[in-house]
Design goal:
Elements lengths: L2 H8 L3 H11 L5 H22 L2 H18 L9 H38 L20 H19 L2 H12 L4 H8 L3 H22 L1 H27 L1
């Protein structure tokens, strides 16, 4: 393949590449490989925001594109390729999250039984948040990391549809019109879903992350005042 051919294929639109895939697959995969290269990082980022695990996100991203490869011949192109792709990606990641949640519940039930049998003999272990960090980290950096982890826990506590609309609307920055295509719903219904999902997130965030957020805000304010005081001293000199 010549350099000119590669450059031409690189600038082809998603729609043009999809049409070529429909004609060429499974015998020729070059157009599909271009689609994968173009959207791999975006899909990985979206999936990672749902599962919060790099290795699992990599595996699920591969699974997403395998599903796309198999389903492309049936893709009717009534919506943008990215809209269809994000639908597959979010469903794949949310399915994985549901499986993990069921497994986690089984582990929790087992661990509770073990802890109950040991409670009369051993003092309870401190929560992970109270354990010392393995490496010394600045307070603000540690709090930010803890807040990110807390936000991910809140997202996993939301129901499937609430998590999906928040991720696509507020994190992936899809428009309401694009979100309506992904969800295959009316625009008015989508706006209501987003509103309800934000309310649910806000309530859970306050319950589980409010204290962390408050401590982080205080730490940031202290650091800001410290810098302002330092700048003031430099100016006065």
């Amino acid at each position: 393949m010549s350099i000119n051919t590669v450059e031409h294929e690189t600038i082809l639109s998603d729609e043009a590449l999809v049409r070529r895939c429909k004609e060429e697959l499974p015998h020729v995969t070059s157009s599909f490989e271009l689609l994968v290269a173009r959207h791999m990082q975006r899909v990985y980022t979206l999936v990672y925001k749902i599962v919060n695990d790099h290795e699992e996100a990599e595996d699920l991203t591969q699974e997403v594109f395998l599903k796309v490869y198999r389903a492309l011949p049936r893709f009717d192109m009534q919506c943008a390729f990215t809209t269809w792709l994000y639908r597959i990606a979010t469903n794949t990641a949310l399915d994985a999250m549901d499986r993990a949640r069921r497994t986690r519940q089984q582990v929790i039930h087992l661990s509770r039984a073990v802890k109950h049998s040991q409670s009369a003999r051993e003092p309870s272990e401190p929560p992970l948040s109270e354990l010392p960090a393995r490496e010394p980290l600045p307070e603000e950096q540690a709090l930010r990391r803890e807040l990110r982890e807390c936000i991910n826990r809140v997202l996993r506590r939301l129901d499937r549809e609430q998590a999906r609309v928040l991720l696509l609307r507020d994190l992936e920055d899809l428009s309401y019109e694009e979100l309506a295509q992904v969800l295959q719903a009316r625009l008015s219904a989508v706006k209501m879903r987003v509103h309800r999902a934000r309310l649910a997130f806000k309530e859970l965030f306050g319950e589980f992350c409010g204290k962390i957020y408050q401590v982080l805000s205080i730490a940031e304010q202290k650091e800001k005042r410290k810098k302002q005081g330092s700048n003031g001293k430099e100016i006065s000199v």
